Amino acid sequence: MMKKYLLLGVLFIEVTNHKSVSKFLNLVSHDYASSHEYLYSNGSGNFFISEIYLKSTDDYDRGFEQVSYLYKQYRAKHKEDTTPLYRNFRMDLWKFWNWRRYLLSKCYRLPYREEIPQEYLADGSYKIDY
Prior knowledge:
By secondary structure, this protein is of the alpha+beta class. 36% of the residues lie in helices and 14% in strands.
């Protein structure tokens, strides 16, 4: 009997982590109105940028590749700044329908830092020095 419930639980998690089901659950849970903004900064606070993950995107890392590229450009120009890139958004582990994204997306491999950069502007834009 226990194996049956375990199997049903694993099957439920697998089904809810399918991309279309996960997107629907994010929409229903108000996690994404039309998009979701991911914030990044480095340890010194001299570099910060946002990435917008669009609902229609099937590739989790499409926006993160651009963030990574811009950070590499910044590091090439500012060799004295050796602080790592942090993600300023958390993983909500209770949202089991996002577990696939948490496991497969490269942005979640970055260390987490709760602090949002002070230079975040009211209109949602960022100053990027690269």
